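Give me the fold.
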Amino acid sequence: MAMFSLWIVTLVLAVAGILKRLRSPLVHIPGPRITAVTSILLKFHEFTSNRRLFIHRLHQQYGPVVRIGPSEVSFSSLDAMREIYMSGGSGYDKTEFYHLFAQFGRR
């Protein structure tokens, strides 16, 4: 009985998580369908040193704005780059990847 209850709770949590991600404001941004639910595809390409090429192919296929994870979007237009990176304190959240650069120069 306890094992059955555990399965039910796990199933309910999984369905709730999937529904939450599918109702995200990012749902209309183009990209592979799996990126709406998980970032496993992006992680795979990151670990195989193909992240840059993977994202470039997605931009070729889907256009200048591509969803690459449940809460990640990649932009390839010059206007977007200026808005995100050059407007000091723009309020855009950056992924954990950017914290990597803070480590250089520290001991």
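The beta strands are 65-69, 72-75.
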